[in-house]
Amino acid sequence: xxxxxxxxxxxxxxxxxxxxxxxxxxxxxSPRRNESNIRYYSEDDLKIFLMIAVLSKKGYKISExxxxxxxxLKNTVLFESKFFSxxxxxxxxxFDTIVSFNQSDFSSFLIKIIIQFGLEITFCEIILPLxxxxxxxxxxxxxxxxxxxxxxxxxxxxxIVLFGKLHTTNTDSKNSYLILSTNNFYDNLFQNYISLFxxxxxxxxxxxxVCNSYNQIVSVVEQKYFENIIVILGENDxxxxxxxxxxxxxxxxxxxxxxxxxxxxxxxxxxxxxxxKNFKNLNLILNTNPxx
Length: 292
Fold this sequence. Notes:
The chain is built from 12 helices and 7 strands. By secondary structure, the chain is of the alpha/beta class. Helix 7 (103-117) crosses helix 8.
């Protein structure tokens, strides 16, 4: 697959001018040119940039990273991404079953974990680290793209199945939630989990999937009024900030919550009390009062 430099920025969060500087100064990668003479990056190049982004967040300098061989780069990322917790055994078992395409064992074991620890702990302490582990193992070529995609799809499918089992008509229709996302990678999983979380707390929800159009949101709210709007921000999607601000500024009659797990907004947004950066804080979207 071919990636242009703007794709690399969107997928990794590394600015295009920074990428160009690194190429010239540190020879990080050597982009090729296609038949139209347009520069492009390979999937292996993308993995390198993703690994660099991981180490940069850990405090490594690019001058240090540039000295690492590909194998050393992979091993350093794996070492820095180790997740130690009381749930490590559960994460490892789920990881082994899912990368071996054993959906039956994965689903049955995940459901047992949810029964044991509850939905919230399972998602925050086990599923999210599992997703991160899958991502790191793909970046370091320990698993392939098919295994990565299968992992996300299987986790998402299990949550959808749980949603179906929990479905109830006994919900609070006077305090309803409109859920949408700005991207379609992790966001589909996040949307389904939030829908499941709200349904568990007997909240009425409508999940409209990916929506980057302000006018579409206006149209939905005109047809059915919602007291709360939840926007899930996609990974490394800084161009969405104007869209987010427009929602915050114009839907003044609703409680507007931003799920900013990947820290896209940083300090660029107001209403910080309604920006949720950790799924452990989802209780903040419960028991809301209509905006006066």
